[in-house]
Amino acid sequence: MLLTARLPLRALTAAALLCLLAPAWTRAMEKPPKITGTYSGVSRLRSLGEQNTLELRIVPTNEGYQGIVQRFARRPLRPSLAEVAVDGERISFSFSDPTDGAIRIFQGRIDQTGLTGVLRVKGRPGFSYEYIQRKTGTYWDEP
Amino acid sequence: MRHSFLLHLAALALPLCALLGLLAPARPCLGGQTAAKPPRIAGTFSQYSFTKDAADLDGLELRIVPVPGGYQAVIQEFEREPLALVLADVDVDRDRVSFSFRQPDGPLQTFQGVIAGDGIRGTMRVEGQAKPRECFLARATGVVWDQPVSAARKEHTCF
Asked: Where are chain A's structural domains?
């Protein structure tokens, strides 16, 4: 009699525990995002002369991840090499811009769709929010 | 009277049209100039192969982008493992392209080639090596890193 009364209580406790642990377990089982690839904020729907954005390619090298960044400030600027640091889904990279000599730092998150984060210029106030979409190929690969 | 005038006009116009039709295709070449469109310089070009065990990659990826004052190339070489990215200025003379680069502590490498719609055909000279290597870098959309690994391997089987 006592056993049958306790059974639903045990089942309820187990169910509650499962509900609490399941999200954490699912997160732990999630595949880490693919880091390498091409990311671009350039839109084909607008003229290059109207765009202030960047394109980034992340590649693995024998010394870790490396990036190449090309900024667009109403025209394509000279590309720069970037050091990329990844920690789980967190990603950051910095590069010295050959156009103005400033060091730009991006800090954000990476997922299957792209990069989201903020871009700052070292030593200057302010920042810009950036969403750089994962793409197959760069703006220059298409006719 | 009016009828015969129209007939005369037609008789004159017909040979004139025929003459124009014959000359039209040759017109762009008059004066020694061709009307051929110059090839698109910017883009991604690659030549790579997976090793026989399909575990490693050999080859070269090149991305040419326009920059103020000309073109620049981003180069990644593969020697069973991906090497560091290198930047190089590209000299362009119509369809001829050339650039030089060196890996950290590596020999100077100079590429000279001719660019077309499907890619760049040329030679790579490596400092200290007598014979230049002939290569064809096919125009591609994206690089090997833009694709899932399995797809890239299927596309670029070893040779």
From this structure: 1-30, 37-137
